[in-house]
Design brief:
- The protein has 422 residues and is α/β, with parallel strands linked by helices.
- The chain contains seven helices and 26 strands.
- Helix 1 packs parallel to helix 6 and helix 4 crosses helix 5.
- It is elongated, with a radius of gyration of 30 Å.
- It binds adenosine monophosphate and magnesium ion.
- The site of magnesium ion has 5 residues, from loops.
Length: 422
């Protein structure tokens, strides 16, 4: 019987030489550089794109001081304190149709929300707070000069930097740029991302099922995760068997065409040999053990200018490592000035949770609001890294920090809602 050396496995406690999640993430980000290409896109296509140049305001927004409510424009100085004031109604200002004449003392103009204040006026009295009689307006005491007015430039000042280069565009940003009168925006070009699944056992969809094999899921999870947050041009590398020359050829060809290649499978001890050899021939790739569960083995480095990630094959580990390590690097590679926001906030766990100190864990949770309004979380049940339904049934990750041990029911845990990731 041949002697078999002890094989490390995912259940082992973290060994010497294991990187913490933070250290791995730092090393990845340090080794990631932004692409240079830019393009101009129509504003309505610019969601989740990254600004290639700062946006400055060519005008004040709003451009005119205007009414915040429907009512009557007056000169604040005309208000008498402690008693009723009467005004003579001389005209109407509508949004888009200003009243052009300066207000004289004691005069008022009916004004609608958004209409520019007539020259000389500085105050708008709310319709419901005054009474109109024939030809004049009676204003009870207690009103203040300046009320119900939006000042010119109170949103954006002419010349001001509205959004910095590298800003990741969200819906309000599109509206803000539109408020400057622009229809197009200069953004970083989409990232070209290559996706490939590896393994002799991986079957393409549509193939007849065979004993010992399974259908590829990783490329599909990754495809979805990529599209949710960034503009990417996907280069599909398909499925590559555990074959040195095929792996080498596929990785090389993807790296030549892509800014980032994401492979899954073939990086754990035992299965790694082919991937390791192929990558050693192609570029500068390191194989790490990271203190994370799921997702311990990770390959990272460069093939030429192309960033390469070798994620573990297990379908849950693929998603966890994608969000924790790959997505922040994709933001940086795409030219974003900031990392994507991945807040984890406290909720009470309804169950006790198994946890070993010495690794960060991403358990799959269902976050819900208790009748008293507080947030609580339970797991989706079995947490094996091959149980993809545990992610599908979840709405958050329960993030348990590196040093934490077992968690009792009722304790606080960090939750990272899928709503911010997906
Ligand atoms: P590996 O990292 O290659 O050792 O694979 C770890 C586990 O993930 C094995 O059970 C594989 O069958 C499974 N796996 C690898 N790639 C995929 C994939 N593309 N889709 C689904 N499961 C996979
Ligand atoms: Mg494999």
């Amino acid at each position: 019987m041949p002697h078999r050396p002890p094989q490390p496995n995912c259940a082992d406690s973290p060994a010497v030489g294991t990187l913490t999640v933070e250290a791995a993430s730092r090393r990845i980000l340090e080794a990631t550089a932004a692409i240079h290409g830019t393009e101009t896109v129509p504003l309505h296509r610019a969601l989740h794109r990254i600004l290639a140049a700062a946006v400055t305001a060519p005008l004040d927004v709003p451009a005119h001081t205007n009414a915040a409510v429907d009512g009557f424009a007056i000169r604040g100085a005309d208000l008498t304190t402690g008693s009723e004031t009467r005004f003579r109604l001389v005209g109407t200002a509508l949004a888009g149709h200003p009243w052009p004449h300066p207000l004289r003392p004691g005069e008022t103009v009916r004004i609608m929300t958004g209409a520019p204040l007539p020259p000389g006026s500085d105050t708008v009295l709310m319709q419901e707070q005054v009474s109109e009689a024939s030809g004049y307006l009676a204003v009870p005491p207690g009103h203040k000069p300046g009320e119900n007015v939006r000042q010119a430039g109170e949103d954006l000042r002419r010349g001001e930097t509205v959004l910095a280069q590298g800003h990741y565009l969200l819906p309000a940003d599109l509206g803000l740029i539109a408020s400057l009168g622009r229809l197009e925006v200069s953004v970083k070009r989409p990232l070209r991302v290559g996706l490939v699944s590896t393994g002799d056992e991986i079957l393409p969809q549509g193939a007849r099922h065979e004993a010992g094999k399974l259908y590829d899921s990783n490329r599909f999870s990754l495809h979805g995760a990529l599209q949710a947050r960034l503009a990417v041009e996907l280069v599909d590398g398909g499925i590559v068997p555990d074959d040195l020359s095929l792996l080498e050829r596929t990785f090389r060809s993807l790296a030549e065409r892509c800014d980032v290649v994401i492979a899954s499978g073939g990086v754990s001890v035992g299965s790694a040999d082919h991937t390791r050899k192929a990558l050693a021939r192609l570029g500068d790739i390191e194989f790490w053990k990271v203190a994370i569960k799921p997702g311990r083995p990770l390959a990272f480095g460069h093939i030429g200018d192309c960033l390469f990630f070798g994620l573990p094959g297990n379908p849950v580990a693929v998603l966890v490592t994608f969000y924790r390590f790959v997505l922040p690097a994709l933001f940086k590679r795409a030219g974003a000035g900031e990392a994507p926001l991945m807040p984890s906030f406290p909720a009470r766990t309804l169950e006790r949770l198994r946890k070993k100190p010495g690794r960060t864990e991403f358990q799959r949770g269902v976050l819900e609001q208790a009748p008293d309004g507080r947030w609580q979380v339970r797991t989706t049940g079995r947490q094996g890294s091959g149980i993809l339904s545990s992610v599908s049934r979840a709405n958050c990750f329960i993030v348990l920090d590196h040093n934490r041990g077992p968690v009792a029911a009722g304790d606080w845990v960090g939750v990272l809602p899928f709503a911010v990731l997906m």
